[in-house]
């Protein structure tokens, strides 16, 4: 098959029908894969695009075929994030109408094996599509296709599957993408630093409100805006700050997982889906893992399946209600959980069931390790606990009051240690981290940046 919207033959070009094609954006560490079309294709030679091809049959199936054929990446190494509404346009030079079906995939590798349809590739931030670089002309409507599947405030607010660290990265991508658009629009509309800053500050505010229980999202958005020079900030500063902070955040999560892997016991229990915990267990490879299914979304099932595929661990899945039974009857040496938020007193906000797991572990004398980057420490005292859809618990006709809390709070006295990118911390150490992170919030009050010591800013801006 061949790239989209370009093609190596003329299918659909002469009969007046729309040519349907797929375009996939593969994302890794906040960057997407861009491919340059070779001379062996029929159209748009030398231009850059995503992984593309004609949508013969079912687009959802064909897009995975194109990924494998054009990159050598197998289906097990990519996971679909979302598909978007087709982008329809007419290329007057070709006298051809295209309908591009866009997809976004998370990709676990950057190892690419090019087909003869492309002669170069690059992992780049999506905003590179907007940059006026002479040697990077993109295929028509590439950015429009990306915007159909890119993260948004709404998609972050509605995401009930992924953990807080993952969603915090998506929030930074939202800021980065909008900042990139504003920089690109300067050619047409001129430069307006104050207007750019006001728009991005308003967007940052909406991101802060999207998931109020997730301190890591707030801290990372605040770090971006604080590092963009407050009252002197503009879209270029925000674009630079987000790019640097995406790498910083990924490194922090990976370092926390690597540290935790050194402390993983031979037999552990966990629940919910924390990407950092999952990575720690993959690296630590305990001989036995007990995973609570984690209702209502049952993301624990995904964790169990991943561990059974990627490690030699013996993995057991059980209902949330069986947590006490499992810890009392099975040989569990350690509880390992993630955190959506760590409060300044050392208590932990996480997926419902974490409190039960930790309380039972405390009774059974089993240590509890919370794996989280320090960005997950909350700067406030209030706890805003999200709730799920009542129909996930009860969808009958009786007049019942339905409770479906999504998060609960685990007392600090039930936590043995926090494992972070800075090493292990005791619950008593968390207050100092919270005080440090409060400095990142000053941009909202005064428009000025806090000091370098409190922001951990991009050193290139100093």
From TrEMBL:
Q: Which organism does this record belong to?
A: Natrinema ejinorense
InterPro entries per record = IF-2B-related (IPR000649), IF_2B-like_C (IPR042529), NagB/RpiA_transferase-like (IPR037171), NUDIX_hydrolase-like_dom_sf (IPR015797), NUDIX_hydrolase_dom (IPR000086)
Ranges for domain Nudix hydrolase come to: 17-146
Of which family is this protein a member? Belongs to the eIF-2B alpha/beta/delta subunits family.
User: PANTHER family of this UniProt entry?
Assistant: METHYLTHIORIBOSE-1-PHOSPHATE ISOMERASE (PTHR43475), TRANSLATION INITIATION FACTOR EIF-2B SUBUNIT FAMILY PROTEIN (AFU_ORTHOLOGUE AFUA_2G14290) (PTHR43475:SF3)
Q: Known Pfam families for this protein?
A: IF-2B, NUDIX
Keyword entries, A-Z = Initiation factor, Protein biosynthesis
Q: Does the keyword Cell membrane apply?
A: no
- Disordered: region residues: 440-462
Top-level lineage group: Archaea
Quote the biased-composition stretches of kind Basic and acidic residues, using this chain's numbering. 453-462
Q: Name one GO molecular function term.
A: translation initiation factor activity
GO terms in the biological process aspect are:
L-methionine salvage from methylthioadenosine
**Keyword Protein biosynthesis found:** yes
**Which PROSITE patterns does the record cross-reference, listed alphabetically?**
NUDIX (PS51462)
Query: What name goes with this protein?
Result: Initiation factor 2B
């Amino acid at each position: 098959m061949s790239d989209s919207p370009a093609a190596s033959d003329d299918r659909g070009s002469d009969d007046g029908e729309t040519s349907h094609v797929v375009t996939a954006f593969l994302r890794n560490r906040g960057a997407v894969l861009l491919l340059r079309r070779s001379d062996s294709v029929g159209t748009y030679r030398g231009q850059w695009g995503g992984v593309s091809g004609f949508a013969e049959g079912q687009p959802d199936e064909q897009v995975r075929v194109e990924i494998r054929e054009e990159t050598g990446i197998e289906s097990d190494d990519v996971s679909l994030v979302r598909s978007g509404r087709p982008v329809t346009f007419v290329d007057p030079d070709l006298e051809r109408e295209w309908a591009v079906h866009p997809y976004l995939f998370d990709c676990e590798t950057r190892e690419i094996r090019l087909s003869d349809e492309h002669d170069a590739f690059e992992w780049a931030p999506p905003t590179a599509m907007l940059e006026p670089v002479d040697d990077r002309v993109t295929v028509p409507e590439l950015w429009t296709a990306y915007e159909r599947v890119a993260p948004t405030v709404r998609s972050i607010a509605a995401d009930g599957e992924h953990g807080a660290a993952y969603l915090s990265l998506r929030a930074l991508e939202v800021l980065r993408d909008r900042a990139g658009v504003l920089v690109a629009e300067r050619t047409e509309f001129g430069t307006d630093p104050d207007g750019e800053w006001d728009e991005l500050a308003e967007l940052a505010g909406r991101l802060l409100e999207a998931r109020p229980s997730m301190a890591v999202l707030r801290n990372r958005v605040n770090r971006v805006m604080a590092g963009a020079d407050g009252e002197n900030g503009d879209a270029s500063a925000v674009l630079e700050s987000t790019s640097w902070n995406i790498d910083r955040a990924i490194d922090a999560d990976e370092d926390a997982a690597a540290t935790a892997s050194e402390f993983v016991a031979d037999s552990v229990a966990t629940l919910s889906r924390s990407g950092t915990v999952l990575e720690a267990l993959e690296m630590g490879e305990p001989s036995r893992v007990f995973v609570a299914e984690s209702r209502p979304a049952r993301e624990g099932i995904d964790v169990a399946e991943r561990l059974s595929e990627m490690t030699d661990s013996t993995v057991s899945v059980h209902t949330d209600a069986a947590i006490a039974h499992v810890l009392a009857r099975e040989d569990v040496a350690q509880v390992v959980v993630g955190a959506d938020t760590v409060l300044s007193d050392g208590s932990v906000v996480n997926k419902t069931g974490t409190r039960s797991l930790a309380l039972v572990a405390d009774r059974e004398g089993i240590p509890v390790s919370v794996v989280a980057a320090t960005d997950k420490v909350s700067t406030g005292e209030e706890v805003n606990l999200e709730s799920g859809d009542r129909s996930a618990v009860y969808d009958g006709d009786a007049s019942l009051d339905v409770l479906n809390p999504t998060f609960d709070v685990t007392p600090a006295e039930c936590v043995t240690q926090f494992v972070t990118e800075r090493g292990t911390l005791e619950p008593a150490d968390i207050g100092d981290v919270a005080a440090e992170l409060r400095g990142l919030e000053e941009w909202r009050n005064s428009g000025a940046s806090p000091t370098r010591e409190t922001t951990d800013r991009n050193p290139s801006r100093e």
